[in-house]
Amino acid sequence: NMQRARGIEPFDFIDAVRAEPQRIAESAPKQLRKFSYVDRGRYGEQLERAFRLFPPEQFLVIKYEEFRARQREVVEGVFRFLRLQPARFRAVEAHDIPYARKIRDDERAAVREILKSDIGRLEALLGWNCSDWR
C-alpha cells in the first residue's frame, strides 16, 4: 500500500507478491528492499543467520503485538536489557495510515501460506506461540 501510494508499485498486492521472487532475482546483488514485501517477513531465517554470528542472549526480540499492547512496559524492558536508565516515554500511535485499500482475507491467507514454515522456525527459535499469525 505504501509503495502504491508513493507511485512506486504498479502491481496490485497479490500480483506484487507473486512477482517478488523474480524481482529479487533480477535486482541481485543490488538492494532488494524495494519490492521484497514477503521476503523481509522471513524472521526465522533472518534470526538463524544472526544467531550464527552472535550469541542469542545478545538479542532482545519483541513481538509487535506485545509492543502494541504494552508499549511502556516493553520500552522499559528494552532499557533494562541494554542496562540503561529508562528514558521518559510517551506512547505513540504509528503505522495507522488510511490507505485506499485494505488487504483482503484471501491475500492475507496467501502470505500466511508462503510464510508458514518460517513462522514455525521462529516459534522454535524463540519459544513463541505465533498461532495468531497463521
- Give the SSE order as H and E letters: HHHHHH
Count of strand segments: 0
- Major sheet attributes: none
Q: Span between N and C termini?
A: 21 Å
Number of helical runs? 6
Give the CA-based shape.
globular
Mean of all residue-level pLDDT scores: 89
The proportion of strand residues reads: under 5%
Low-confidence stretches: none
Helix and strand composition category: mainly alpha
Radius of gyration, CA atoms, in whole angstroms: 17 Å
Helix content: 40-55%
What does this molecule look like?
The structure is a single chain. It is built from six helices and no strands. It is globular, with a radius of gyration of 17 Å. 51% of the residues lie in helices and 0% in strands.
How are the secondary structure elements laid out?
Blueprint: H1 2-5, H2 13-27, H3 43-53, H4 64-69, H5 71-81, H6 105-126
Helix pairs in contact: 3-6
Features:
134 residues; mainly alpha; globular
In short:
The protein is mainly α. The protein is globular.
